[in-house]
Amino acid sequence: MDNVTPLGGDVYEIDTRMAGYSGITAGYLILGDRPCLVETGTSTSAPVVRDALTSLGVGPNDLATVVVTHIHLDHAGGVGDIAGHYPSAEIVVHEKGARHLADPSRLMASARMVWGDQLDRLFGRLAPTDAARIRTLGDTGSIDLGGGRTLSGHHSPGHAKHHVGLLDSFTGDLYVGDAAGVYLPETGDLRPATPPPDFDLQTALNSVALFGELGPQRLLFSHYGPVTDVAATLERSAEELRIWVDLTTQAHTAGMDLDHAVAMVRDRTRERYAALSAENEETAERFELLSGAPSNVAGIMHWLERTHPDAT
């Protein structure tokens, strides 16, 4: 299939074709003795992911595990649908996100407030998962991939309180979710993902530092794809976080409202990203959807208002 890319080590990247786009959200199949799907993509992507698994020889009773880095709908919106199609699969998530997979009503209501009429087109609806099938990870935890191979979970909040990074003991691949930001392979751009309500700068920087300490051989971004220059990429991730926070802090201190803060930060960061040049309109659209300035600035402003209430 044209949306499946072998990455070596029995790892396959699956383009989930979120909202019909290519190269926007990746799921990954680790095809070992106990096949494991990392990230399901959205609910509307579930048929695409299912077809990809079928093409790789994974039938309804073959998938052992589904694990998500966090429960945001572009990563975990398809969990309920995928769980229904693969009845033998255990569903693994951080303990702080588990209840939202079992009962998605609050999560969906919150997403509706943020996305409005775009919710159905972009994400679809997260179906509930039987709580008995959900296994939780704490600060650490391990997933058995068979043959002595494991996927170890490492709590990495900052982007979201329930975020985990996942390290493959065989390949050294680290599944970074959104904790290291959003990467565009076409341009090499990396931009932070700092949405409300959970963003916290020091926690996010600590998570990036933890990723470096784990010594991965490769970073596998959910948005989007593999990166082998690990040290430089994580350094850039931390730099991007600081730049966006510094600029948003300036706007906050100046008493700007959200719209004016977004405009200022967008203008002052534009030249950092090749994706935002005029000849890359479609790429820019994808970049904004994944790591939009309004969402990023709103998340940082929310953090500033919580931690620096008297700054203005």
Automatic annotation (TrEMBL):
Gene3D superfamilies: Ribonuclease Z/Hydroxyacylglutathione hydrolase-like. One of its GO terms (molecular function) is hydrolase activity. SUPFAM superfamilies: Metallo-hydrolase/oxidoreductase (SSF56281). Pfam families: Lactamase_B. This is Glyoxylase-like metal-dependent hydrolase (Beta-lactamase superfamily II). The keyword Hydrolase applies. InterPro entries: Metallo-B-lactamas, NDM-1-like, RibonucZ/Hydroxyglut_hydro, ST1585_MBL-fold. Keywords: Hydrolase. Residues 24-223 form the Metallo-beta-lactamase domain. PANTHER family: METALLO BETA-LACTAMASE SUPERFAMILY LIPOPROTEIN, METALLO-BETA-LACTAMASE DOMAIN-CONTAINING. The keyword DNA-binding does not apply.
